[in-house]
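so ive been stuck on this for like two days lol. basically i have the seq below and the ligand is 6-O-phosphono-beta-D-fructofuranose, smiles is in there too. i just want the complex predicted, nothing fancy, no docking runs or whatever. if the output looks off dont worry ill sanity check it later, just need somthing to start from for the group meeting slides
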Amino acid sequence: MPHTPAPDASDVPDLPELPDAPEIRIDVPGSFPRAVFRERHPVLIGQVLDALPYGPRQRAALTELLARSTGGGVLEPPDADTPDGARWRAWGAGQWGRRWDEAPFLWAESWFYRLLLEATGWFRPGAWQGVDPFAPFKAAELAGPAVDAELAALEAESGRDALLSAALWGNRADLSFRLTAPDGSAESGLVADDSARLWAVLERGRGGRVGVVADNAGRELLPDLVLIDHLLTTGLAGQAVLYVKPHPYFLSDATTADTLAALTRLRTAPGKAAAAIGERLWRAMGEGTLTVRTHPFFCAPLPYDAMPADLRAELAGATLTVLKGDLNYRRLVGDRHWPPTTPFAALTGYFPTPVAALRTLKSDVAVGLAPDTVSRLDATGTPWRTSGRHALIQVHG
Ligand SMILES: O=P(O)(O)OC[C@H]1O[C@](O)(CO)[C@@H](O)[C@@H]1O
């Protein structure tokens, strides 16, 4: 389906005709998506098998998933009696019966995580129902020294741009990305910076509702929560809604349980400032000024321009919706080989509210970049789109 802006993009003046950009696929030898399936997923499945004492049935199911998804297996629709079976049958229309490597990258990756969860017994009545296979990794990260240091840093006064930057670069902490990315690949800067516009949109809607579509738990969610506290305490937001995944997804994606763990980590931090933030957010939840919400579509294999009417209505009315991370970005602009200078506004005009993307670059898709930025990045000869060393703040609204 070609990605076209919805009619309400008409408030965006002088936008060029969108190019016909091909979908990003996994069947291209040497490509990043292929490496995700062939290199990251085997490491991931190995780590999941090591982390919890799954029985023979689950171990066999996980091993089979890996073999089928990397070895040309055919995509089979879910049983209709699984809780999300009907939904997935519809989301996968056009894909069932094809080979794994014929499916678009976004779709295939999403289905892989859905099957991984099923293989562990998440959905079925039994002892493993509802046990997050990624919990050991999330818990280790949350308890680790990097979080101690990041919480200690909150004791020093920080300006709002520092808080925004922490939430942005927190996205580098994604555990799935670190499965094969070289350690110590230092941050190297913003390739697009609409932060002034972000604050202006928030000022314009001062006191309104701000939505934050979360990405990863732990080291990303903590600075997201700190930013939300800033918006609430300064009155830039009168109300905040944190949207999380309805179930574990893409390894470290945040659920409600992860949010509660992060809040507890803040509240019990040794530093006064961090603990006070945790306390305020805890209270804000009780008072309804901070709400945690979810929707099945947050785990859908589709771009956000296909969001259902109830989610659209749910998001509508916010002064700004902040989308965190790489996967949300792919879904926001469409997971396609866009020319990187394609205007961000041209691809996001359909979104029901003003929208901000805070993302480190960890996959091929990139839009809204200035031509000289693209030339500079290309001239480095490095995989700048996927290395996680670059980040962007883009705003439309
Ligand atoms: O946590 P984030 O920022 O959404 O990143 C997830 C990214 O990691 C990958 O799954 C690769 O490991 C990308 O395909 C995906 O977009």
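The pocket of 6-O-phosphono-beta-D-fructofuranose is lined by residues 36, 40, 109, 171, 174, 176-177, 215-216, 250, 325-327, 330, 362-363 (CB under 6 Å). The first helix runs from residue 32 to 51.
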